[in-house]
Amino acid sequence: MTIRLDYNNAFIKKSELENLSNIIKKNHNLIHEKKGAGNDYLGWLELPSKYHKEELDRIKRVAERIRNNSDVLIIIGIGGSYLGARACIDALSSQFYNILPKCKRKTPEIYYVGNNISSDYILDLFEVIEDKEISVNVISKSGTTTEPAIAFRIFKEYMEKRYGKEEAKNRIYATTDKKKGALKTLANSEGYQTFTIPDDVGGRYSIFTPVGLLPIAVAGIDIDKLMDGAKSAEIEYSNDNIVENPCYQYAAIRNILHSRNKDIEILAYYEPALYYASEWWKQLFGESEGKDGKGLFPAAVGFTTDLHSMGQLIQDGKRNIFETTINIENNQREITIKATKDNLDGLNFLEGKTLNYVNKKAFEGTLKAHVQGDVPNLVINLPKLNEFYFGKLIYFFEKSCAMSGYLLGVNPFDQPGVEKYKTNMFQLLGKPGY
Ligand SMILES: O=P(O)(O)OC[C@H]1O[C@](O)(CO)[C@@H](O)[C@@H]1O
User: PANTHER family recorded for this chain (predicted)?
Assistant: First the structure.
């Protein structure tokens, strides 16, 4: 069992992919020999196989400590500094994780802060955590991003008021650069335990570093299995032959469709647990490819929910879109629909069918309708939603994004455009030097 890419409904012929064999091989070498644009940010490529065991063990020890002494973990970070963890925790834990009764969840509640600048958000959260034991993991690669920095200033004061400076120090963990940035300076001067984000791994590629692994381990998810999945992807997708490598096929198909005026890729999923996986995917592809006047716009929809809002546009709107569906092939848990005596809702024809079965028929029906509506459709089939395949899927997207960016002719590892709003905001706020 592995991840299977089905492009039978993408209006792409195998020969069109074969025609790209040489350019794929060339870009594959640029990636693996680290000679292409952004080559100092390719550390993610071998993270699954090269990650230090001692660091993984330290992550597990700290996660256990947080689990033992905290009812709540506050994760402070924005973009790649929280989306990977949130995507994984949401995909692999209960969808009602934070409100599960204590007897059902042995791990702390988890709240994400520093991904907006809303006082209501933080004040609402203070009410929730009032009587609970707290730990904080502040995550910022640059150590200077405004949103998490403001949130941390507020939470540092909150923790010191609640616990006193000494105990607060034992409950705050900083994940940041090895040497530079304000967060590193602050962590050193306060004596917080720190975790390092390698220099050669950018934020949106950082889930398999402490950025993702510490929060994920605190949530009780098996990070060894997650890394095993990523490792299996690292091996499987190191094949430079496009005909045999679905990860490169996905990258190539996106670019072929883009060249046919498909400007928007819609990621669709039928399990609501994948909502944050789609948010993570949006950052990965949006920030990697949207530059130099180029790039597909990555959008996402949760079905069947959004069939009742966006379905109309996808079926009948401007034909500048294509769809990529993440299909979970085997769901482990089932609810079976029963017959009723009076059949007043007219649903007895579904007697004995499971919700998973109905969901699959919704997927098949939707795919058929959208293809008939001239929307190219790709399907990424995931055997199961578990640690192993989630780790594998993340790596699949990371590597396909690198390849896709090179095919598009951009540097997939920088994000110069993000600075524009910051400069304007700092000018408006009167920050010295702006
Ligand atoms: O980890 P940092 O440096 O706080 O950055 C957070 C996010 O902000 C960005 O740098 C964009 O401003 C993203 O690339 C990144 O994921």
Answer: GLUCOSE-6-PHOSPHATE ISOMERASE (PTHR11469:SF1)
Strands 109-113 and 193-196: unpaired
ipTM over 0.95: yes
Closest by CA to 289, choosing from 401, 416, 417, is 401
Query: pLDDT of 72-102, one tens digit each?
Result: 999 999 999 999 999 999 999 999 999 999 8
| 234 a catalytic residue | no
Question: What pLDDT does 102 receive?
Answer: 85
Closest by CA to 402, choosing from 32, 17, 2, is 32
Distance, CA of 47 to CA of 50 (rounded, Å):
5
Atom 9 (ligand 1): residue with closest C-alpha? 79
Burial environment of residue 161 by CB neighbours within 10 A (0 to 12, 13 to 18, 19 or more): exposed
User: Ligand 1, closest atom to CA 142?
Assistant: 3
- For position 112, what pLDDT does the model report? 98
Q: Model-level pTM?
A: 0.98
Measured CA to CA in angstroms, residue 144 lies from 61, 169, 261 at distances of: 28, 20, 38
**Cβ neighbours around 216 below 10 Å, total:** 29
Is the sign of the CA dihedral 302, 288, 215, 332 positive or negative?
Answer: positive
| Catalytically annotated residue among 287, 289, 323, 387 | 287
Check if the beta carbon of residue 294 is closer than 8 Å to that of residue 408. Answer: yes
Nearest residue to 326 via CA among 1, 6, 56: 6
Rounded to the nearest angstrom, the distance between the alpha carbon of 144 and the centre of ligand 1 is 9
Q: Closest ligand 1 atom, CA of 197?
A: 1
Q: How far is CA 424 from CA 2, 47, 226, 292, 417, in A?
A: 47, 36, 40, 20, 12
